[in-house]
């Protein structure tokens, strides 16, 4: 290891508290990005995967529903179903009405109002593991994950949107909403009579799917038929709000590491005026000084980023322990971008201190005490 | 330039520090000349401008007026970068307060200097570092940190650091100021040897007349002026 590398490293270890605080702050930026974005990623993936896994061929979204969760409120008239059933290649159509995130038992959940008759026809259906499917208004079926995390049993009553529901069954988790209730009941509560958020559509055969989508696009201008197989991807690409969110959080992490490194290196330069003066007196060029300061910042960032990675996974584990129904997806791609940006922020932050150091007047630092 | 030209020369050198709104005159017209291979001592009361003169001679700072010629190059009109390069390649500084890097070992301190010199004209072999430490009697302590050394030992590290690249000029600001008489004698003998064997030009500030006597000549200063010994002695040690 070169002596300049050792100099930078030893300077860090020499001021342990400051180094630790700076490293933790950089790590915090990383955790912020990976966990918050991971949470959003996870929620989105989870949500779209659930829709994907239902097994319908096409998800028909209403006009203008490109933004995240824009199909919260019912906007498709149920009547449209009859028209779609006339199109060639259609096997069945099932409307779904979905609420915005609703707080139930201290966590946010999307309520799915479905049509018990047609829902099984568009996909793999609903696998009840205990109790039965709902058959009357104000009955609700929950999935196994929700049942165990909220410790609910068949026969319990449950308040949803200020209405009392009766839990009649538990179904295998994996697709669709965690809480399923009759679409009619949900329409009533939401005052969305005759409306759905989206349609699940299945075609008569695999080869009929694409032509059907083309027909839907032509006959229902503005409507957005999405292939179930590419739903996650389409969902994510259209989620402008989500992209903005990721940008904002990433920007925060950059700013954090920029400020932290700026402050840490600036105080280091001030504390070490003498040492920098001596380097210059020996004949170190400005570039040499800048390099030494940058190297030290790079070390701070690298250690901070590495700790941030480790702590992100710990934070994820801890969050999931506290809230088992959350989904946090930490991808390599996100880790890599968060790290790269934190590093960039740190390097930019160290430029000014490095510049200041390179401009220090050796005489000022050596003669006067 | 010919070999007879002085390696260091100042012409009507003036340095006025600005401290806030007050002007602090440190040098008021200094003319000295130092020949190649000379060993010169500078003496004078505290605050008379000795360190200031030494810093100007080594191109650490720019004069307010007047000229400094180092090996024929006029430092007073050289850029910061040019002065830095000259200092790196030609000069070894030993400071009044030995500024070692506290986070590195003795050897590490010398290695940093070596890294700096390696950007210049002189490639210093690694062996040179340990040799120089042996020379100043610190061969056994090269893996210690400055804080674990006595003041005298730290000063010797600073001296070793100034010598590793065998500079033509050694500028030493009270190199024996913190040493007991035994260590002080060792350092003075070392400087004498360097001067004698390697023909290095040595300029040493000291408060001690006995130390000054090891040199060929003593420049005496008072209140920013040279009062005696400014002109080059005719016969530097051969
Ligand atoms: N950076 C500076 N800013 C302002 N004044 C300074 C500065 N450096 C030195 N001086 C002043 O210049 C004068 C000469 O200082 P210098 O350090 O050259 O003296 P010196 O002869 O080396 O003294 P000593 O024997 O105590 O080291 C002093 O009055 C000092 O206060
Ligand atoms: Mg002095």
Distance between the termini of chain A: 34 Å
Average residue pLDDT of chain B = 88
Relative strand content of chain B: 25-35%
Helicity range of the residues of chain A? 55-70%
Largest interchain contact:
A-B, 28 and 35 residues
Oligomer, anyone? Answer: heterodimer
Runs of chain A with pLDDT <50, length 5+?
none
Largest sheet of chain B: 6 strands, mixed
Largest sheet, strands/sense/barrel of chain A: 10 strands, mixed
What is the CA–CA distance across the termini of chain B? 20 Å
Assign the structural class of chain B, choosing from mainly alpha, mainly beta, alpha/beta, alpha+beta, or little secondary structure. Answer: alpha/beta
Order of helices and strands of chain B: EEEHEEHEHHHEHEHEE
How many strands appear in the DSSP assignment of chain B? 10
What structural class is derived from the secondary structure elements of chain A? alpha+beta
- Principal-axes shape call of chain A: elongated
DSSP, total strands of chain A: 14
Question: Can you give the mean pLDDT of chain A?
Answer: 87
Q: How many DSSP H or I helices of chain A?
A: 13
In a nutshell, what does this entry contain?
The complex is a heterodimer of chains A (369) and B (238). Chain A has 369 residues and is α+β, with helices and mostly antiparallel strands. Chain A has helices at 3-14, 16-54, 80-85, 119-122, 144-150, 183-189, 209-219, 231-238, 240-271, 273-282, 286-322, 332-359, 362-367, and strands at 58-61, 76-77, 90-98, 102-104, 107-109, 111-114, 128-131, 139-143, 157-160, 163-171, 179-182, 195-196, 198-203, 224-227.
């Amino acid at each position: 290891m070169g002596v300049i590398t050792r100099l930078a490293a030893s300077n860090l270890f020499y001021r342990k508290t400051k180094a630790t605080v700076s490293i933790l702050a950089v790590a915090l930026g990383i955790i912020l990005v990976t966990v918050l974005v991971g949470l959003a990623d996870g929620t989105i993936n989870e949500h779209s995967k659930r829709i994907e896994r239902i097994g319908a061929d096409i998800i028909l979204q209403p006009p203008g529903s490109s933004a995240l969760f824009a199909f919260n409120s019912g906007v498709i008239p149920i009547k449209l179903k009859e028209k779609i059933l006339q199109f060639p290649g259609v096997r069945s159509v099932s409307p779904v009405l979905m609420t915005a995130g609703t707080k139930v038992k201290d966590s946010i959940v999307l309520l799915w109002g479905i049509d018990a008759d047609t829902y099984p026809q568009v996909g793999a259906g609903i696998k009840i593991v205990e109790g039965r499917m709902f058959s009357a208004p104000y009955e609700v079926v929950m999935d196994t994950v929700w049942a165990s995390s909220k410790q609910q049993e068949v026969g319990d009553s449950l308040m949803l949107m200020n209405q009392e529901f009766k839990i009649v069954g538990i179904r295998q988790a994996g697709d669709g909403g965690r809480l399923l209730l009759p679409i009619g009941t949900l329409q009533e509560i939401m005052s969305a009579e005759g409306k759905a958020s989206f349609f699940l559509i299945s075609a008569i055969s695999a080869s009929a799917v694409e032509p059907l989508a083309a027909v839907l696009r032509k006959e229902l201008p503005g409507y957005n038929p999405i292939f179930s197989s590419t739903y996650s991807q389409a969902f994510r690409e259209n989620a402008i709000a989500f992209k903005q969110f990721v940008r904002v959080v990433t920007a925060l992490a950059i700013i954090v590491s920029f400020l932290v490194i700026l402050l840490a290196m600036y105080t280091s330069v001030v504390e070490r005026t003498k040492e920098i003066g001596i380097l210059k007196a020996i004949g170190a060029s400005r570039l040499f000084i800048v390099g030494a300061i940058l190297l030290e910042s790079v070390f701070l960032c690298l250690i901070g980023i590495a700790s941030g990675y480790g702590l992100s996974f710990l934070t994820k584990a801890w969050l999931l322990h506290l809230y088992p129904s959350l989904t946090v997806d930490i991808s390599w791609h996100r880790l890599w971008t968060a790290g790269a940006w934190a590093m960039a922020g740190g390097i930019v932050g160290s430029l000014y201190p490095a510049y200041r150091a390179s401009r220090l007047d050796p005489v000022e630092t050596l003669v006067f005490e | 330039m010919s070999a007879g030209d002085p390696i260091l020369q100042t012409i009507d050198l003036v340095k006025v520090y600005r401290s806030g709104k007050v002007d602090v005159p440190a040098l008021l017209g200094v003319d000295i000349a130092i020949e190649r291979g000379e060993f010169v001592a500078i003496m004078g009361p505290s605050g008379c401008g000795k360190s200031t003169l030494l810093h100007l001679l080594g191109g650490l700072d720019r004069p307010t007026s007047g000229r400094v010629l180092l090996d024929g190059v006029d430092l007073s009109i050289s850029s910061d970068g040019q002065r830095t390069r000259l200092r790196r390649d030609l000069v070894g500084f030993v400071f009044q307060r030995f500024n070692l890097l506290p986070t590195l070992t003795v050897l590490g301190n010398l290695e940093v200097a070596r890294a700096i010199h390696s950007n210049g004209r002189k490639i210093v072999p690694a062996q040179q570092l340990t040799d120089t430490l042996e020379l100043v009697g610190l061969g056994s302590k090269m893996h210690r940190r400055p804080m674990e050394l006595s003041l005298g030992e730290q000063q010797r590290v600073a001296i070793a650091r100034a010598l590793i690249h065998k500079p033509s000029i050694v500028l030493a600001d009270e190199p024996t100021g913190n040493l007991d008489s035994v260590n002080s004698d060792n350092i003075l003998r070392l400087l004498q040897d360097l001067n004698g064997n390697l023909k290095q030009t040595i300029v040493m500030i000291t408060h001690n007349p006995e130390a000054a006597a090891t040199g060929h000549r003593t420049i005496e200063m008072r209140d920013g002026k040279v009062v005696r010994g400014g002109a080059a002695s005719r016969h530097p040690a051969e």
